[in-house]
Amino acid sequence: MGSATREALAASKQVLDATGSVDLTVAAELFQVGRVVGDSLQLRSLLHDSAIPAATKSAIVERVFGDGTGETTRSLVSSLVTARWSSAEDLLEGIEDLALRASAVATGDQASIASELFAFGRVVSSDAQLELALGTKLGRPEAKGVLVSRLLDGKASPATVTILSALVQQPRGRRIGELLRHAARVVADQKGQTVATVTSAVPLGEQQLERLRSALSASYGRNLTINEVVDPAVIGGLRIQVADDVIDGSVSTRLGELRRQLAG
Asked: Which residues contact 43 (CB under 8 A, 6 or more apart)?
């Protein structure tokens, strides 16, 4: 990710935070804008081109999305396209990022959304047919969105359903697990939190989880949301992943290292 994109992402978050009224309709419209821009190389190139004046880009947004989106959505999109992005693909990522953050802002419960995204990811990873149905490039995107909505009807928050339905329709080359981990990180970040995935052989008690959360929060300097994974294969100990950081103190890993040393 280039420096221009990092600055543009930070600026778009500031614009969202300063926007008075953001509901789930705005989030859904932003996801729809992302699909339209993603499906049109010409439109994507125009909106990314730094040689085109900001006023012209805003006029393009009004002309293309004026009939299908609200004023708040178009204003947010205009702020995105008038910023400088390192690439046209980064602009597309920026639209998705803003839609995820808008989904979180609309509900005010980012931690719950992150947990539901994580839980859905576990369900998909344990069901090969479902993973294939959602991950295949052959199916119609709209059908995947409908499938997610039906699966989660009454079982997840409207914000989570909106996010998942949108992501499976526009994966941008990412596998389902990667999609959901990224989305969980963004919605948690909107609340100033970080997601930690903790894997253990047996369920941890509430006090253990709270002590772990407190220790990790102190180490990373921000609040953490913990997603717990129970996997008997780790045998004992813990495996902790925070963003790209992995702390692996599991018995299975130590045994593997010992076997490699003996074989070496």
From this structure: 36, 37, 60, 64
